[in-house]
Hints:
Organism: Meiothermus luteus
CATH superfamily of the domain at 70-271: MetI-like
Distance between the termini: 29 Å
Low-confidence stretches: none
Keywords: Cell membrane, Membrane, Sugar transport, Transmembrane, Transmembrane helix, Transport
Membrane topology: Multi-pass membrane protein
Domain ABC transmembrane type-1: 73-288
CATH architecture of the domain at 70-271: Orthogonal Bundle
Pfam family, one: BPD_transp_1
CATH class of the domain at 70-271: Mainly Alpha
Amino acid sequence: MRTLGQRLWRYRGLYLMLLPGLLYFLVFRYWPLWNAQIAFRDFQPVLGVWGSPWVGLQHFYDFFNSYYFEQLLRNTLVISVAKIVAGIPPAVLLAIALHETSRRFLSRLVQTVSFLPHFLSWVIVYGILLAVLSPSDGLLNQFLQAFGLEPIPFLTSVQTFQPVVVLSEVWKETGWSAVLFLAALLSINPALYEAAAIDGASRWQQVRYISLPGLTGVLVLVLLLKIGSILDAGFHQIFVLYSLPVYSVGDIIDTWVYRQGILNFQFSLATAVGLFKGAIGLVLIVLANHLARRWTGNSLY
C-alpha cells in the first residue's frame, strides 16, 4: 500500500492531467448506466426510477414487434454500411496523394481545404445542399434544365435521398479521415522508401508494397470502431436532412427513438432501444476484433 501511495505521489502530475478525463467518463458514461434500469420499468418522472413499476422486457418486445422495426433496422444498416464502403477508399487515396506529392504548399492547401468541412455543422451543410440540389433554384437542377431535363427533388425523393446522405457524409468527413491515414504513412520508416528506390521500385510499387501495408493497422482500427457503431447512422445528419416524404428510406433507429422518447415522452422505450444498440455494438466489435486479430494480426485490444 505504501508503494502504491509512493507511485501516486511520484506521478501526481500525470494523474492530475488524467483526472478530468476520468471524471468525464464517470459522470457522463458510467453513472447514467445506473438509471438505464428504466428500460425495464414503466418510467414515470413523478414516481422516479425506483418508484416506477417493473415491466421486465416489455419495452424490448414492443420495439421488436413494432411495424417500423424492420424498416428502421434496414435503413440504419444500409446507410451505415454505405458510409463505410464509400468513405474509407477516398480517405486512403487522399492520404496517399498528400504523402506522395513533392509540393509541400499544394499538399498543405489540399489538406486544409479537405479538412475544413469536418468543422461545419449539419445545419450549414444542409444550407449548402439546398443551394445545390433544390428542385426550384438549385445549381445542379438549373444545369439539368439548361439541357432540357426535368429537375430532380434530391432531398425529397426516395430514390436519391440515401445517395445524398452518403455522398454528403463522404464530402464532409474525407479530409478528417485522411489525417488519420496520413499520420500512419508518416510513421513509416523513410529508409524503406530509400531502399526500394535504390532497388529500382517505381512510385506505384512503393505505394503498393510499402505504403498500403503500412496502413493496415490504422485501417483495421478504423473499421473496428465503425463496425462497433454500425447502428449509429448519423442522427444529426439525418435529422437535418430528412422529411416526411423520405421516412421510408431515411428514418433510422435514432430518429425514431427521438420522436418516441422525446416528443412522445416514452423514456423507457427510448432507453430500451439504446441498450439494444449498445448490446449489438458490443457483440459486433468483439467479434470483429477477434476476426481482425486472427486474420491480420492487428486488433483493437
